[in-house]
């Protein structure tokens, strides 16, 4: 007996679903070098253009000189350094919550929070389009796990009625593949009615949404009573890496005691926390980044609609163009690439069958003229794209 990996891979290739990793030969930015060629890119999550901001890079450099390059150990052993602590305090202040806890990645923050809060005998309910890390966390928790219809509080309500034990409702703030914002008012109202807790992963909303970049909870005016467990990631608008959970003293103490992906891993390099402290400062003071991003989003949506492209109900930096067929999505992505533009095609199983799309993401680092270049190229490529699947 052996593992027939070759057959598995061949099957994936035959279904036009084979995943590739473009090789980046330059820093993040609107213009990148990929596989040796310069391209105008619309696929990064560096929404505010902070990933290689000179002040953030300098903070990292100074941090590395002072603290070295490694975390050294897990937080509970001897890996919890002053920069980690300062960043946690700054994130607590930013989110207006008593405390925040730093994780090495968003995937681990989600896994850690869900599995620390619910287990056997409990219930976890998730939007069916939640990020993979949240769905994996629900499965791993051992709690009864059910997915409700996307952005549908009524569908959530029918599941809440049957829930047992402690019940956690888990929801993305902005859905990563559609770009739409969660109906959190509806979700929180249902949760309150059934005495359930709400956890929101606002990986794509922090920094980009809300009057001060406080994300979807700020935009919707929701507090800690509505959303006791708030997750943010640092690899997107913050431009660095890592993640945090913000909430009450008791919540954070519980995670420190019980969240295995927090306890059993090396802390992130303290110098990285120094860099994130700087990017948080820029994110809080340079409002023009959010305003410029909003102008780019408007320009893109208006232009794409006039070409006849099918957009989704998103007013965030994630602007997918729905194509449907995987081969057509790949063909459009390839045609753009031949014109020097990089936009990734997203196919099943990342999205549902028949909903392949080009996932355009915009960043404050883009100029309006670059969005116009994308629109021109899209108009030409779209006109030449064969109508049928091939
Ligand atoms: N949550 C959401 C909604 C995401 O889109 C992602 C990453 N794409 C994550 C969590 C994971 O974050 P990280 O990349 O820091 O692991």
TrEMBL record:
Quote the SUPFAM superfamilies the UniProt record gives.
PLP-dependent transferases
Entry protein name? 8-amino-7-oxononanoate synthase
Quaternary organization: Homodimer.
Q: Name one GO biological process term.
A: biotin biosynthetic process
Gene3D superfamilies assigned: Aspartate Aminotransferase, domain 1, Type I PLP-dependent aspartate aminotransferase-like (Major domain)
CDD domains linked to this entry = KBL_like
Keyword Hydrolase assigned to the entry: answer is: no
Quick check: keyword Cytoplasm in the entry? no
Domain of life of the source: Bacteria
Q: Which UniProt keywords apply?
A: Biotin biosynthesis, Pyridoxal phosphate, Transferase
Similarity remark: Belongs to the class-II pyridoxal-phosphate-dependent aminotransferase family. BioF subfamily.
Tell me the lineage of the source organism: Bacteria, Pseudomonadati, Pseudomonadota, Gammaproteobacteria, Pseudomonadales
Q: Which reaction(s) does the protein catalyse, per the Swiss-Prot or TrEMBL entry?
A: 6-carboxyhexanoyl-[ACP] + L-alanine + H(+) = (8S)-8-amino-7-oxononanoate + holo-[ACP] + CO2
Look up the record and name the cofactor or cofactors this protein needs. Answer: pyridoxal 5'-phosphate
Origin species, per record, is Phytopseudomonas punonensis
Q: What pathway is it annotated to?
A: Cofactor biosynthesis; biotin biosynthesis
Q: Name one Pfam family in it.
A: Aminotran_1_2
According to its UniProt record, this protein's enzyme class is transferase
InterPro entries of this UniProt entry?
Answer: Aminotrans_II_pyridoxalP_BS, Aminotransferase_I/II_large, AON_synthase_class-II, AONS_Archaea/Proteobacteria, AONS_Proteobacteria, PyrdxlP-dep_Trfase, PyrdxlP-dep_Trfase_major, PyrdxlP-dep_Trfase_small
């Amino acid at each position: 007996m052996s593992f027939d990996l070759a057959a598995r891979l061949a099957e994936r290739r035959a279904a036009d679903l084979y995943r590739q990793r473009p090789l980046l030969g330059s820093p993040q930015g609107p213009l990148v070098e990929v596989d040796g060629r310069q391209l105008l890119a619309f696929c990064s999550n560096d929404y505010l253009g902070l990933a290689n901001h000179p002040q953030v890079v300098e903070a990292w450099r100074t941090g590395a000189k002072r603290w070295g390059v490694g975390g050294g150990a897990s937080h509970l052993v001897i890996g919890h350094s002053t920069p980690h602590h300062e960043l946690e305090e700054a994130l607590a202040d930013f989110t207006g919550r008593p405390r925040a806890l730093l994780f090495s990645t968003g995937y681990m923050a989600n896994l850690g929070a869900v599995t620390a809060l619910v287990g056997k005998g409990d219930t976890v309910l998730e939007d069916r389009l939640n990020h993979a890390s949240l769905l994996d966390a629900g499965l791993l928790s051992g709690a009864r796990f059910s997915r409700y219809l996307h952005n549908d509080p009524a569908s959530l309500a029918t599941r809440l009625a049957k829930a047992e034990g402690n019940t956690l409702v888990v929801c993305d703030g902005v859905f990563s593949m559609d770009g739409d914002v969660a109906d959190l008012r509806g979700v929180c109202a249902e949760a309150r009615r059934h005495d359930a807790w709400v956890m929101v992963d606002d990986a794509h909303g922090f920094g980009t949404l809300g009057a001060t970049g406080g994300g979807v909870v700020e935009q919707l005016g929701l507090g800690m009573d509505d959303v006791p467990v708030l997750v943010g990631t640092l690899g997107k608008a913050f431009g660095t890496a890592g993640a945090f959970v913000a909430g009450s003293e008791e919540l954070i103490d519980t995670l420190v005691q019980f969240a295995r992906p927090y306890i059993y891993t090396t802390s992130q390099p303290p110098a990285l926390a120094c860099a994130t402290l700087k990017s948080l400062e820029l994110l809080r003071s340079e409002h023009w980044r959010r305003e410029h991003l909003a102008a780019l989003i408007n320009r893109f949506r208006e232009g794409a609609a006039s070409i006849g492209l099918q957009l989704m109900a998103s007013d965030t930096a994630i602007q997918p163009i729905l194509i449907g067929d995987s081969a057509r999505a790949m063909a459009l992505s390839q045609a753009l690439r031949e014109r020097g533009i990089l936009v990734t095609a997203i196919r099943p199983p990342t999205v549902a069958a028949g909903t392949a799309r080009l996932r355009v993401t915009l960043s404050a680092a883009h100029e309006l003229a670059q969005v116009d270049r994308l629109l021109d190229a899209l108009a030409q490529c779209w006109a030449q794209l064969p109508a049928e699947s091939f």
